[in-house]
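Input.
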Amino acid sequence: RLTADQRAELWPLTLEFERKGLTIRWDCAMVPFLAHHSEDRAANGISAARARTLGVVGCVGGERLLARGVDGTLAPCSFVSGQRHFQSISEHWQEDSTLNQWRGLAKDPPEPCRSCSFQSVCRSGCRVVSAHLTGQALTPDPECSRVIEWQASLP
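Output.
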C-alpha cells in the first residue's frame, strides 16, 4: 500500500513526467489517488472535468466492461472470477447480480464518495482493490486518501 507521502507525490510526479514528454494513463485502479490532488484540495490540483478530458475514468466494470474468460465465464472485470450460469451474454448483462451491484455502487455511492467532488470520475474506486484489501468489493476504495481520512474521523 502507498504511504501518505507517496500518495501526495503521484500527481506532481505525473506533471513532471508530462513536462518531459511522457503521457501517463491513469487506469481505474489508480484513479482514487487523484482525489488526493483534486482542485478543491490542492492549489495545482486537477478538476474532475480536466480528468474526464484526459480520459481518466474509474471502475466501469459491469457498466461499460464485461470480461470473458478463456473458459467462457463472464465477469465485470478481467481481474475477478466470472460466472457461467446464464444462457446468453445479453441475459448475463441484464440479470447478473454482481454486475448490477457494481453498477449500483457507481450510481448511488456511500459516503465519503457520495459527497466527493471527484466521484463522477473516480466512481468509488477499484472494486478489485476494495475486495483485496477489505474483503468487500462494494465498499469505497480503501486506498483513496479521502476514504482514509473519512474512516479516521469516525467515532
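The chain has eight helices and two strands.
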